[in-house]
């Protein structure tokens, strides 16, 4: 894997190769990753994984026609051939009115912000094994835990570089550290499984192995002896570990590509009051140590914090250059590169601002409802907003949790769900999408 400086230079050199081969414009993305992971089960080593990948992707334009090609061979001869081939492909490609590099005046300039994305301490296999063993041991010590699906610890490093023919060249490095445990409680047909998992840029931001293990064990034991729910309309409260999925559906519908295709349930709702006026949803690509922090986007545009929903209303779409041209708008710094091809669209570190009441107060007036801790399946229609997913969790009776429940379905429409959404004050900060406990009134629950 190249270091950021060398990666930036290699990307810029490939851009020049494409220009010499006849491209009118070009951009190059370099993406490299390495990771090491240890899995243990019942106190014994079960798996050791080590992976490394390195990829460079070239996109070339001849007029309004473009083509993309990539390679894992970064040798000079391979890159020379890559440049010649992609220009030849671009000459044969159909024209695309909206294709092109991002506006030059919007490119990031000056020193890139330091987002503290690199943990200098590199754990070895023995360190990772010790963490995984400690997490599993703590989980198995929880009374009621009877078996283990294992625990794991991993460490990774990645480098991203981007260069364009109209003046941008940048690169940054990041690390990742993760720790997980998954255990089983109970016996026979009454067994229940649950887990705990955390990921961070720096190992210091992870909970201790004991905390991860105890959380996994406690969650599994709390699910023992689940009851069934009667069908009907009732309030549904989403635990923070699953509530972020609602924001994920919103982000997908806010993608400029989906809007341009007419394939979003938000189409035509730009001026509507989608949420309660107290709801704010923020996107912050410059958050230090954030899991999706980035100093520039996949087209070289500067990134900046932005309110996606303010006063309960959308502030606009998430746009890369192509979607912006198609919609007659300005790009928003949300272009994303995942390898070859044209840039996609992605948000960064997103969160719903904390509300004014505790989770207990949020549930206090619920006579009969459900607290969801797990969602199953992908029954969400991004075009209509129709929502239906399997779930498990706990009954809410008289304003308090009243025992585990399983094998039920929650359903509604995302537009109506957003309007009925109320956040608590327990915002958590360790995911890519961070939310507090969320209450949505009037959902349909299908149980017995």
From TrEMBL:
It holds the Pfam family PmbA_TldD_3rd. GO terms for molecular function: metallopeptidase activity. GO terms for cellular component: cytosol. Residues 121-224 form the Metalloprotease TldD/E central domain. Transmembrane segments: none annotated. Residues 231-447 form the Metalloprotease TldD/E C-terminal domain. SUPFAM superfamilies: Putative modulator of DNA gyrase, PmbA/TldD. Residues 26-90 form the Metalloprotease TldD/E N-terminal domain. GO terms for biological process: proteolysis. Belongs to the peptidase U62 family. This is TldD/PmbA family protein. It comes from Novosphingobium piscinae.
């Amino acid at each position: 894997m190249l270091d950021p400086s060398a990666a930036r230079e290699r990307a810029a050199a490939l851009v020049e190769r494409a220009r010499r081969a006849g491209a009118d414009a070009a951009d190059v993305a370099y993406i490299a990753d390495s990771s090491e992971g240890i899995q243990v089960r019942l106190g014994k080593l079960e798996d050791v994984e080590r992976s490394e990948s390195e990829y460079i992707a070239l996109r070339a334009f001849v007029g309004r026609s473009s083509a993309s090609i990539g390679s894992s061979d970064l040798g000079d001869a391979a890159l020379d051939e890559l440049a010649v081939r992609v220009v030849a492909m671009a000459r044969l490609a159909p024209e695309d009115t909206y294709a092109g590099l991002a506006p030059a005046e919007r490119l990031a300039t000056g020193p890139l912000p330091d987002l503290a994305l690199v943990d200098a301490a590199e754990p070895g296999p023995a360190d990772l094994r010790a963490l995984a063993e400690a997490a599993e041991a703590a989980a198995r010590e929880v009374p009621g835990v009877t078996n283990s699906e294992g625990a794991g610890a991993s460490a990774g490093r990645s480098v991203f570089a981007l260069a364009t023919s109209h003046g941008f060249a940048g690169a940054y490095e990041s690390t990742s550290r993760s720790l997980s445990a998954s255990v089983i409680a109970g016996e026979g047909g009454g067994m229940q499984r649950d887990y705990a998992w955390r990921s961070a840029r720096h190992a210091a931001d992870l909970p201790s192995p004991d905390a991860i293990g105890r959380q996994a064990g406690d969650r599994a034991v709390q699910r023992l002896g689940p009851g069934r729910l009667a069908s009907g309309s009732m309030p549904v409260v989403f635990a923070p570990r699953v509530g972020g999925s609602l924001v994920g559906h919103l982000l997908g519908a806010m993608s400029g590509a989906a809007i341009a295709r007419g394939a979003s349930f938000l189409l035509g709702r730009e001026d509507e009051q989608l949420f309660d006026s107290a709801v704010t949803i923020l996107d912050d690509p410059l958050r230090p140590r954030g899991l999706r922090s980035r100093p520039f986007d996949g087209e070289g545009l500067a990134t900046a914090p932005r309110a996606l929903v303010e006063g309960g209303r959308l502030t606009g779409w998430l746009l890369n250059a192509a979607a912006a041209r198609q919609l007659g708008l300005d790009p928003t710094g949300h272009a994303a590169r995942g390898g070859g091809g044209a840039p996609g669209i992605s948000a960064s570190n997103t969160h719903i601002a904390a509300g004014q009441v505790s989770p207990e107060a949020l549930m206090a007036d619920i006579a009969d409802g459900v607290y969801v801790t797990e969602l199953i399946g992908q029954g969400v229609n991004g075009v209509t907003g129709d929502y239906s997913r399997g779930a498990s969790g706990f009954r809410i009776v008289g304003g308090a949790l009243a025992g585990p429940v399983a094998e039920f379905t929650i359903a509604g429409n995302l537009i109506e769900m957003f309007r009925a959404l109320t956040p608590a004050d327990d915002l958590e900060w360790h995911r890519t999408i961070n939310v507090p406990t969320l209450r949505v009134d009037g959902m349909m629950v299908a149980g017995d």
